[in-house]
Q: What sequence folds into this?
């Protein structure tokens, strides 16, 4: 087991918000198809969602969820859940 998120990144507050949204969906996240909606929810440019997804995937914060069909959806890994909960209460961000 690696401690992939032990080193803090300037992206961590944004990743935490992204991961919180992924975790809030029982189906996880499908990049591409759901990226625009995610960008709107987080109030960031669409390209930034791609950067957040890539960072989260490479750091082991997301895990693939294989279901019916050929589409891979992504869900939080234990490390992703940890990062999301660590940064849950970000100052200046209202979750409601």
A:
């Amino acid at each position: 087991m690696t401690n992939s998120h032990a080193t803090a990144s300037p992206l961590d507050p944004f990743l935490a918000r992204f991961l919180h949204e992924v975790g809030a969906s029982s189906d996880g996240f499908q990049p591409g198809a759901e990226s625009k909606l995610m960008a709107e929810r987080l109030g960031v440019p669409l390209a930034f969602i791609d950067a957040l997804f890539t960072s989260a995937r490479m750091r082991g914060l997301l895990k693939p969820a294989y279901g019916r069909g050929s589409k891979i959806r992504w869900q939080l890994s234990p490390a992703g859940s940890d990062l999301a909960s660590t940064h849950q209460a970000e100052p200046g961000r209202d979750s409601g």
About this structure: The beta strands are 62-66, 72-76. The CA atoms of residues 13 and 91 lie 10 Å apart. The first strand starts at residue 62 and ends at 66.
